[in-house]
Amino acid sequence: MPEFSNSQIAAALEELGDLYELDGAIIHRVVAYRNAAKAVREASTSVAGLARAGRATELPGIGATLQEKIQALVDTGQIPAAEKLRAKFPPGLVAITRLAGLGPKRARMLYDELGIDSLDALRAAIESERVRDLRGFGVKAEENIRAALEAAAAGDGGEVRVVLDRALAIGEPIVAALRADPAADRVELAGSARRWTDSVKDLDVIATAHDPAALAAAFAELGTFERVHSSGPAGARATTHSGLRVDLRIVAPEQFGNLLQHFTGSKQHNMALRDMAVRKGLHVSEYGVLDDATGETRTCATEADVYALLGLAYIEPELREDRGELEVAADGGAGLPRLLEPGELRGDLHCHTIASDGRTTIEKMALAARERGLEYLAITDHSATMGFGNDVAPDELRRQIERVREANAAIEGIELLAGSEVNVLPDGRLDYDDELLAQLDWVIASVHTSFRMPAAEMTARIVAALEHPLVDALGHPTGRKVERRPPYAVDMEEVIAAAARTGTMLEINANPDRRDLDDVHARAAAAAGVPIVIDTDAHWPANFDVARYGVATARRAWLGPEQVANTRPWPELRALRKRARR
DNA sequence: GCCGTTTTCGGCCCGACTGTTTTCAGTCG
Question: Which nt is closest to the CA of A271, judged by C1'?
Answer without folding.
Answer: B13
